[in-house]
Task: structure prediction
Amino acid sequence: MDEQLTHAPMGVIEVAVDGEITSANPVAADLLDTDPEALWGRKATEALPRSAAGTLHEALAADSPVEQSVEEYYPTVDSWLATDVTVVEDSTVLYIRDVTARRSDRQTIDRLRRRLSRLESIDALVTTVLRQIIDASAREEVWETVCRRLGTTDLYEFVWIGERDLTDDRLRVVASAGDAPDVLDAIETELSASTALPEQRAVETNSACLVETIPEDEDLPRALRVAAFSRGLQSALAVPLTSEDTVYGVVGVYATRKEGFSTQERATLNTLGAVAGFAVNAIKQSDLLFADTVTEVRLEVRDGDLPLVEASATVDGPVSLAGAVARDDDVVVCYLRTAGGTDQLMGVVQDHSAVDDVRLVEAGDETSLLEVSLAGPTPITTLVGWGATVTGATYDGETAELVAELPPESDVRAAVEAVDERFEDTTLRARSERPREPETMETFQRRLEESLTEKQRRVLRVAHLSDYFESPRGSTSEEVAEALDISGPTVLYHLRNAQRELLDAFFDTENTSKPDR
Result:
């Protein structure tokens, strides 16, 4: 071997016609983890390590070596080597380079590309599911949509959804998708045995539960591990289906990949769980709105740490709920009536961790009206989370007495237990079913007609016909006043009173403790 090849920056090995190595430079010896002298005089097919594929050995064993380039992994030296086979007169020259780093970078890039593609597929799938469940009209439709869409894709092999059975507080399977009947059988068997499945832990903790390697997780029941292994299922993620602090169910998602749920993927599926819970809660509220009958419950909660109970202790006389409205961000805005002492009451309320905001709406001679936004755990927010409408509440410094309405087919026991679990001294004082008599449009209009004075009807009709209520307005209050030949303040006075009558009729506020949600 000439001087230049000996000191070349790559490995160089010369092989004679009979297949023996005649020379090798130090770089080649280092790449093959040996000495140059150990290579000389030996058959190339014996001296050179065998690659995973064996392509280079096959090329050297041929009667007439062919010029070619080979890139292979060599286990004995734990390296990827690229070899150029060159025929020079009566010998063959091998030029060898270590490409392990380049291969590693390429594999990393390919892995990241696959991960990105998977995340994009998951995001697209979840977006589709979210659109469909928001339009669902029944709880069962939400469960079936989530299960079917997740379980019939190439992303996941098996999906099931469980609801809590209120007769014994156990989960029961309400939907499943994917070809894994033995896994489903194992899950149903373990549910009846009260075994700690990941889905049960997710419900108990109201947080996602990840199983990275199912066959190796000894906390899982053996029957489930065996069934999952037989189907090639390696990892699972259990996501609670929640709205605020209320857990309506759980979805178990199973994949064939070890550690198959990335941080971003878990976050996406958690979002799906939250939206599914929100959809179920919205359906419950819709059921209550259109129900022919409602279930009314009366609860007594004795807990001096509750914000409104604590605050009511600072004033003489009870504090009553005049109305409550649930916002989209799980905050419930409450309107409270109290007699005197509003400064002390507001001071206590606004310092409480469960209160988001407090405002004095009206300071009257006999009673005052306060606006309190509840963002933390309270009996009201808990009941609202279960789809109830809180129609009344009274606070006397020691207890909170609440009246709430739920759809007749709703989980009344679960709603009451949700309050009892968070506020231990909770007593169900009464439960009753009462019908709702639907009011016809003609009856509503007649009732509204009777509630308005002649002047109010006249001002309201002229304002309506002259586009006073449009945006932008077609007429100003002065122009309405001019048409009626009365003063502007008089128009505004009659408009406000007429609008109040309209709103009272629509929201049925004859009982001022009855709120709209």
